[in-house]
Specification:
The chain has about 300 residues and is an alpha/beta fold. It contains 13 helices and seven strands. Helix 7 crosses helix 12.
Length: about 300
Amino acid sequence: MNNDTLKVDLIKRIETALPKMSKGHKLIASFILEHYDKAAYMTASKLGAEVGISESTVVRFADELGFDGYPDLQHSLREIVRNKLTTLQRIEIANDRIGNNDILDKVVCSDIDKLRITLDKINHDHFNSAVDAIVSAENIYIVGMRSSSNLAAFMSFYFNLIFDNVKYVSSSGGSEIFENIMRITDKDVLIGISFPRYSKRCINAVQYAKSQGAHIIALTDSNISPIAELADSLLLAESDMASFVDSLVAPLSIINAMIVAAGMKKKDDVSNTFKRLEEIWEEYDVYQKLPDMRI
């Protein structure tokens, strides 16, 4: 289900219930219908203050619409609008949400919440199938664009220490992506990493790999993500925006878990690799030696 379908479904639900709503609920409904992009990032208290009713009335409004509380309604609204927000809109919303005080505490606590939500909603069977597919693949392709490219590069760095068949797909031009993955087959795995705002180049790469029969591992934020429906193994990680910055702490944690899980399955190879690397690092003086701090 795409964003437009979600929006239509939610609006229909509100409009269907509207005639039987109380006066306070009608005020909330009208505000959401006109300003759903703003409502998505307003607390129940702030939304109530905006339309002149109590916080408890906002909570009851969500319950009567069939949502599991106001946070559930808010989550549905965010799913609709998040990929459509411009950078400027992100900054404006973040200023309202965070303000200028206790920014460190608010951002870190928000990231901790995302980790908890991610652990609750991730499918462990899909995680295990993803790791199995990676370990048995002839080639492992990793694709991530824009802010997600940092996640893809991190995964590629460590997977290259475990496997000798890793291909990090990085490109500044659309055609180069296909040149990098043109030989992908049904014996390979493609790991697509995509978070709002979703990159068309990443979506195109995943679509092509799917058409060639490759096992698709999608690391993304939602079932309505464009790459989710293409996935053989779907890994959902909570993400959000901290002003113009994408918060990608949760997907990075999932990547860490994948690296560790793959390393455990290849532990003999990994041990031999790092033994050899330690010898190379020592021989070529790669790392700065710290003074002995023992007393």
